[in-house]
TrEMBL record:
Keywords: Oxidoreductase. Signal peptide: none annotated. It comes from Lysinibacillus sphaericus (Bacillus sphaericus). Residues 135-272 form the Gal80p-like C-terminal domain. This is Gfo/Idh/MocA family oxidoreductase. The lineage of its organism: Bacteria, Bacillati, Bacillota, Bacilli, Bacillales. GO terms for molecular function: nucleotide binding; oxidoreductase activity. The keyword Cytoplasm does not apply. InterPro entries: Gal80p-like_C, Gfo/Idh/MocA-like_OxRdtase_N, Gfo/Idh/MocA_oxidrdct_glycsds, NAD(P)-bd_dom_sf. Residues 6-122 form the Gfo/Idh/MocA-like oxidoreductase N-terminal domain. It comes from the Bacteria.
Length: 369
């Protein structure tokens, strides 16, 4: 890659912003291709304080002004989902490159418009589906492609989180309103389904059930009880384009865990997560590989081992850092490798199919591109 520094402005870049301060900011600070030049928050005091600590010369409360800054080449949007649309459009108006967190928008129509405008502007656009940067995910994807476990027959994925159930905090209460577009299905489900489809291919048909077991949630800081209208139990059964049978269970308000098991004619892979919060994109994944030679299925004949692929960090910061390195390469070399707004639209549409099936009780066939 040519020696080029990309100046970055972060909308939602306050050091009080949990996700930005724990992933985007440390990833960008340690990445040699970037320089943080602007911080945008809703409060000028926190904006200036964060900018000072990060040695960024500019602080803003208006994201339009941040996008207009001549010292910003790339804008990162790391704010609550309901505000993504307006912030992204402001960036696109200035023809600046953009990295937006997932979900891209509160609904698919917004996401489609954002993707269309980004393409028309001929800028580089990235979506925060950083689970694809996992070394473990990519190892399993490549090993399956190489036939390590033979033809894949089925996959089973379990995604569980203690959040989005009957207890919340003030920061998370907006996740319990369907209209905000940041639900158990869209966040935990979206990231996990993206990883599943990235490894094995898209769904060609599915049926789904979505249930609400918690209709209220207790807010820890205030003791207030608030209404909750989002599903906390989501079941998806379907078939992928390669005829793999798929079963997915996404649940909130329960003991957290992540597991993806992929079974083939010659063996299986199992991806699990240490200290899981039900977010595959947080990293800390473990690979187990099982081989049954000569199609023998006796327990004593099955070879099972944990696959160690590297000593490098496999946490959320490293995933985001790898995503930024890929984006920098795309910008400098005019290539397209990073997951972008078109990938986001595709995932939004898949989630729409899940909702439609759950609402109608019907099995839905998905038109392939």
């Amino acid at each position: 890659m040519k020696n080029k520094i990309i100046n970055v402005g972060i909308i939602g870049g306050s050091l009080n912003n949990q996700w930005a301060s724990q992933t985007h900011i440390p990833a960008l600070k340690n990445n040699p291709f970037y320089n943080i030049t602007a911080i945008g928050t809703s409060n000028i005091v926190t904006a200036e304080k964060s900018a000072k600590i990060l040695n960024a010369p500019h602080a803003f409360t208006n994201y339009k002004e941040l996008a207009q800054s001549k010292d910003v080449d790339l804008v990162v949007v790391s704010i609550k989902v309901p505000h993504h649309y307006d912030a992204v459009l402001a960036v696109l108006e200035e023809n600046k490159h953009i990295y937006c967190e997932w979900p891209l928008a509160i609904h698919t129509h917004q996401a489609e418009k954002m993707a269309q405008l980004a393409e028309e502007r001929h800028i580089h656009h990235a979506i925060g589906l950083q689970g694809r940067q996992s070394p473990e995910v990519n190892y399993v994807k490549q090993a399956i492609h190489q036939g390590d476990i033979g033809k894949v027959i089925s996959c089973t994925m379990q995604v569980a989180t203690q959040g989005k159930g009957g207890i919340t905090d003030e920061k998370g209460r907006y996740l319990l309103d369907e209209d905000n577009g940041a639900t158990l299905l869209s966040i935990n489900g979206g990231h996990s389904l993206d990883v599943l489809c990235y490894i094995l291919g898209d769904f060609k048909e599915l049926s789904a059930t979505m249930n609400v077991h918690y209709t209220e949630a207790f807010v820890q800081e205030t003791g207030q009880s608030i209404e909750k209208n989002t599903a906390d139990q989501i079941l998806i059964q379907g078939t992928l384009v390669n005829d793999t049978s798929a079963s997915v269970h996404i649940q909130g308000g329960v003991y957290p865990a992540f597991q993806l098991e992929i079974r083939g004619k010659k063996g299986a892979f199992r991806l699990t997560q240490k200290n899981s919060y039900g977010h595959v994109q947080f990293g800390n994944l473990i690979i187990e590989k099982m081989i049954h030679p000569n199609n023998l299925f006796n327990a004593k004949d099955i070879l099972m081992e944990e696959v160690k692929i590297s000593e490098q960090n496999n946490d959320a910061i490293s995933y985001v850092n790898q995503a930024y390195t890929m984006l920098a390469k795309d910008i400098v070399e005019s290539s397209k490798h990073i997951p972008d707004f078109k990938d986001a639209v595709k995932l939004h549409r898949l989630l729409d199919v899940v909702r439609k099936s759950a609402k109608t009780g019907k099995r839905i066939f998905i038109k392939q591109p």
